[in-house]
Every structure is written in structure tokens, then in C-alpha cells.
């Protein structure tokens, strides 16, 4: 019987093969973060269209599960869907607003701060969730867990340093 949001959706990351692990490493570099921050969304959209929504670019390239998170735009009020890598956390899911270590906070994170209601979808299963800011202790736990499947998060965190606050959200069923 499912015990939380991650289990209910069947959301988990694979350990990855050697190619996956090398892509994960490359994406964590400054150059990789820059390239992926500008291209991954478009590549992921193309892979999704070509596979009928059954595959994602991060899944193919890095063996990472992609969660579609639909938020409400803080300015437009329109629904916006982002393809994100979530961290299984305490039976649920957490999101890290690293933006590949770039200077700007990702729009989806700002949207969740303005309106914490969202929809998450994974492999055709959707759930309504509420996002809440993680506590300091939870931030540390989430980053530690995320670093086990994707070492790039630690690189992003060091690169961002004190230039901006990386938002971390814990998703709870609505």
C-alpha cells in the first residue's frame, strides 16, 4: 500500500548506467549547467512529443525521473508546467530551485511562493499538492538525499553561494 506521494506516483530515480552517471557529472559543471539551463526544456519537450509522453530527456540522458509540476503564474495567473527533478523525501517529494546553479531563481519557485497550490504529474498519474517552504533542517536533509542520485546539486549550491537563496519546497497532498 502506498505510504506517501512518491510511492503513490511510483516516483523514483535509477542509479544510472555509466553514461547516465557521466551526464549527471557533466550537468553539474558550470559549463554543463549553463548549457542545460538553456536547452534542456526544449530537448525535453521534443523527446516527450516524439515518445508520446513516455520518455523524457533527463530520463534518457541521465536516468533521472522527471516530474511535471504545474503552477499558477504569479503575474499572468496562467497555468505553467515545468519539467523538474524531484527528490523523494520522507515518503513524499521535495523540489530544489537550483536553476542549474544559474544566478536567477527559477520562475516555478517564485510561482509556488506566490501560490503554493500545484499539480504534479508522473507517468500519467496526477495529484494536487500544496508546496511549503522546507525548514532549515529539511533543506539540509533534502540536499543530502538529492546528492545521492545527482551530485550536481552540491555543485550548484556552492556556485550560488550567498548570491541568492535556493528555494526548497516540500510537496504535500492537497
From TrEMBL:
Similarity annotation: Belongs to the F420H(2)-dependent quinone reductase family.
Organism in which the protein naturally occurs: Nocardioides flavus
Origin: domain of life: Bacteria
Name assigned to this protein: Deazaflavin-dependent oxidoreductase, nitroreductase family
Catalyzed reaction equations: oxidized coenzyme F420-(gamma-L-Glu)(n) + a quinol + H(+) = reduced coenzyme F420-(gamma-L-Glu)(n) + a quinone
InterPro entries for the chain: F420H2_quin_Rdtase, Split_barrel_FMN-bd
Secretion signal span: none
Alphabetical list of Pfam families matching this protein: F420H2_quin_red
